[in-house]
Write a structure and sequence with these properties.
270 residues; single chain; alpha/beta; six-stranded mixed beta sheet; Hypothetical Protein, Haloacid Dehalogenase-like Hydrolase, Chain: A, domain 2
């Protein structure tokens, strides 16, 4: 690879930065601190809500805006300034929830950085444990969101792992380009506004920081990271990444979650 200078590092969280038990290892913390000491802006690019993502940002002492909700929100980690927000149109949100309910799928709706669910069940508890944010029960989700100010930032279906790809394919087929539907986790099918993705948000963030997109480095592992990996000046897939992600990445790390981030920073930044 031709020698480049990277000024913005975008890191996916789950499966890339943090282990299954949501731990950021000391080598990862040290590598990120070293990158920041070099003047590199480090951000998180995640499907997680801001309230969840900012916990990791604070642990890493990050001071940049965070890409949250698959790119549907960019919000400053320190000041809380909302830089970008594009919720799902209400009519599409209704159609999404109705189709999910037809199949008896559990749905999370995200409004004002809160998780709302129809009932507290295993799926809601599982998601909340990973997000480290409690879900709030509202009964009928369709009735709850039926106000313009409650257009959800994101919708998530939580199913058993063996059903997720089928759900993604079904909802992609049902909504086409009307929604951006992706898999962010073995059990999560996510939907946001069709003009949103981690890639679009990365470009917008780089522009706001006056950093050429060519000087951005992105690291990820899952299908929802592909738009970001394709947008970045250079991309790294960690060793545990999906095969399709490895095919698109400019470099495949020998290290898996956590270790792959350290490898990327050491090889391309330090």
């Amino acid at each position: 690879m031709t020698e480049r200078i990277f000024k913005l590092l975008a890191l996916d969280v789950d499966g890339t930065l943090v282990t299954d038990n949501l731990v950021i290892t000391d080598p990862v913390k040290k590598a990120i601190a070293a990158a920041q000491e070099r003047g590199v802006v480090v951000t998180l690019a995640t499907g997680r809500m801001f309230r969840s993502a900012v916990q990791f940002a604070n642990e890493l002492n990050l001071s940049a805006p965070l890409i949250c909700y698959q790119g549907a929100m960019v919000k400053h980690s320190r000041t809380g300034e909302l830089i970008f927000h594009q919720p799902v149109p209400l009519e599409l949100a209704r159609e999404f929830i109705e189709l999910a309910q037809k199949h008896n799928y559990h749905v999370n709706a995200y409004v004002d950085d809160h998780i709302y669910v129809a009932e507290m069940n295993e799926e809601a508890r599982y998601y909340s444990s990973l997000a480290r944010v409690p879900a709030e029960v509202v009964g009928n989700l369709l009735n709850f969101i039926d106000r313009p100010e409650r257009a959800p930032t994101k919708l998530v279906i939580v199913t058993d792992e063996d059903k997720t790809l089928g759900v993604v394919n079904e909802f992609e087929g049902a909504f086409g380009h009307a929604l951006y539907v992706t898999r962010s986790h073995a059990r999560f099918t996510e939907a946001v506004h069709p003009e949103c993705s981690k890639g679009v948000a990365l470009r917008a963030l780089a522009k706001s920081l006056d950093i050429p997109v060519e000087q951005t480095l992105a690291v990820g592992d899952n299908l929802n990271d592909l738009p970001m990996l394709e947008m970045a000046g250079f991309s790294v897939a960690v060793a545990n990444a999906s095969p399709g992600v490895k095919e698109k990445a400019g470099y495949v790390a020998s290290g898996a979650v956590g270790d792959g981030v350290v490898e990327a920073i050491n090889k391309f930044i330090l």
